[in-house]
Fold:
Amino acid sequence: MIGATTAGVMTAKYKNAKFEAFKSAADAAYAQAQAKTLEIELKNQMLAKELDSAYRQGKKDIDRLSSELATVRLRDPNARSCPMPDPPAAGEPKNQAAGADLSAELTQLLLSESRRADEAALYAQTCYQWIKDVQAK
Structure:
């Protein structure tokens, strides 16, 4: 009986020592993984700030260009001209088409759609840069 009890205690101590060694190795691996995760999160936060700053600057550039173009009146350079009975006045181009200016409404529509396309391109470029930089890590 004493031998069986001693063997049982020794086996339990051996199993407990094995478990403790396994547990401490797992704890060390967990701490290492957690430290690496925090490092990656910090890098991602820095990247996000950089990209956000670049995105905001791009939006400011688009806003500036939109305000500069607000007074522009677009023309259709390929407008067909009707035969003109009188020769053009001095300083006026020969092939200038009468009525080749686009209406103010159409000009504003084209400019606003151009702005939306620029904003979509900026957003896509920022997303692409995020994915590219995250994959590079």
The chain is about 75% helix and 0% strand. Residues 2-73+100-136 form one domain. The longest helix spans residues 2-69. The chain has a mean pLDDT of 84.
